């Protein structure tokens, strides 16, 4: 009985020693898998989206500068051409401008700017009467229309109070690339010669 008990005690001691050795090995071994509590609780989300690039569409000038050309029409209304741009396709030209009432009374004659073509929808308070003239080739270009018959230009214009400035635009079919300047004409205003830039 004594020998059997001794063997049993020796076996228990050996097993305990082996367990301690394995535990020590695991603690000392840097390659053993470790659980990072912080990394487990931290959720990695998607990268934040970058804000969209700013719109680079050119805005009309506020009328404070001389612009590309300036003419004065009836009742002290000043027309300032601020920007002329060919489309990327080269098929159209957009003329941006301002109308400013430099007089002392409100101006109610905007309906004259719509021209005389009654087939243009909503022309009475718009820039539908504007034209471009290529004097070198004796060609005149009229404001383009949309599929509903409306002009591709500023519409719903209203009376101008003294000192008031309003931005306007009109779009035309583009003259050939060789044409570098044209005359812009709006009813009741003298012609304004403006340069034509390259496509942008």
Written account of the structure:
16% of the residues lie in helices and 25% in strands. The chain has helices spanning 2-28, 37-41, and strands spanning 69-72, 77-86, 92-101, 131-134, 139-142, 165-173, 181-185, 192-195. Strands 1-2-3-6 form a four-stranded antiparallel beta sheet, with no helix packed on it. The radius of gyration is 40 Å and the shape is globular. 24% of the residues are buried. The model is unreliable at 9-64 (pLDDT under 50).
Question: Main traits of this protein?
Answer:
four-stranded antiparallel sheet; 200 residues; 25% strand
Low-confidence regions: 9-64
> Which strand order does the major sheet show?
1-2-3-6
Rg, Cα atoms, Å: 40 Å
Strand residues, percent: 25-35%
- Overall shape: globular
How many helical stretches? 2
Would you tell me the structural class of the helices and strands? Answer: alpha+beta
Number of strands: 8
Characterize the biggest β-sheet.
4 strands, antiparallel
Distance between the termini: 105 Å
SSE run? HHEEEEEEEE
Determine the fraction of residues in helical runs and give it as a percent range.
10-25%
Mean pLDDT: 77
